[in-house]
Amino acid sequence: MRHGKYRFIASFLVVPIVLYVVFVVSPYAQAFYISMTDWRGFSGQQNFIGFDNYVELATDGRFWRAMSHNGLLLVVVPLVTIAFALFLAAVTTVAGRQGAVGRGGVRGSRLYQVVFFFPQVVPVVIAGVLFGFFFNPDAGLLNGALRVVGLDGLTRSWLGDTTFALPSVMAVLIWGAVGFYYVLFSSAMKSVPPDVFEAAVLDGAGRIRTFWSITLPMIWDSVQVSYIYLGIMVLDGFTLLQVMLPDGGPDGSTQVVSQYLYRSAFTEGRFGYASAIGVALCLVTLLLAVAVLRLTRRQQTEY
């Protein structure tokens, strides 16, 4: 019976495993092989050059500058997004459960979830085009609003300034992501047993103390997964940046690794080198996921 059970399980697993190997593992293996060639992308000739592309990558200043932009996005966007989403979720969900409002949170919390989720429905390309007009120095809504309230000195070419171009993109990324994680954290907070909050109220714990000692530890798994997903999003970030700043921004101040990969492949015709960039980016993403899982697991045990 034991052997029959294993054969039964294997009969169901063999097809998805084969499909996974063909459509997921195989492309990764091919990309790694191409990264060790000098393939130009438009010919059948692929000369094997070993790790030469990786050696060049290690000393490529443009690559490391693009990686620094990804690193800055990786620090700012997930932290601000998660903090803002947690704040909104706690105010509209947990606050009501602690007080006299009841289990459902403050009045209108469902409406808030729908409204804050709106940006998630807007396609990234459309959002990039809209915010391109929003930050327009002459006819943009932001500079227009500043002029109306008499703050003409604060107007500037937001996407044309090396100081403000990347922060402007960060603001758009946060705007687009915070609604989804607000809904996610709200659902996680609603799953916490109400008896826990009632016990905290009876013990005299305030809202801030309850959030740090009860709410956050009990939804920590959701926060951990959210940081990983947000990290993967900003390590890519290609679509929005390519729409808003297709040339890498003023003086390359917003170019990320995925844009550099695209330019190396389709502008410079260096598909082998671009594949090496892709392999390096994939490795960084995997290292990020492992680091976050280990760090947050250790913090969770401390709770």
Q: Low-confidence runs (pLDDT<50, min 5 residues)?
A: 97-104
Helix content: over 70%
What separation lies between the terminal Cα atoms?
45 Å
Class inferred from helices and paired strands: mainly alpha
How many β-strand runs? 0
Mean pLDDT: 85
Radius of gyration: 24 Å
Overall shape: it is flat
Q: Assembly type of the shown chains?
A: single chain
Please work out how many helical segments DSSP would assign: 13
The largest β sheet comes out as: none
Strand content: under 5%
Write down the secondary-structure element order.
Answer: HHHHHHHHHHHHH
Please outline the helices and strands.
Blueprint: H1 2-34, H2 52-58, H3 61-98, H4 109-121, H5 124-134, H6 141-148, H7 165-190, H8 194-202, H9 207-218, H10 220-236, H11 238-244, H12 257-266, H13 271-302
Helix pairs in contact: 1-13, 3-7, 3-10, 4-7, 5-11, 7-10, 10-13, 12-13
Which descriptors apply to this entry?
303 residues; mainly alpha
3D architecture notes:
74% of the residues lie in helices and 0% in strands. Helix 5 runs parallel beside helix 11 (238-244). It is flat, with a radius of gyration of 24 Å. The chain is mostly helical. The longest helix is centred in the first third of the chain and has 38 residues, at 61-98. It is built from 13 helices and no strands. It has helices at 2-34, 52-58, 61-98, 109-121, 124-134, 141-148, 165-190, 194-202, 207-218, 220-236, 238-244, 257-266, 271-302.
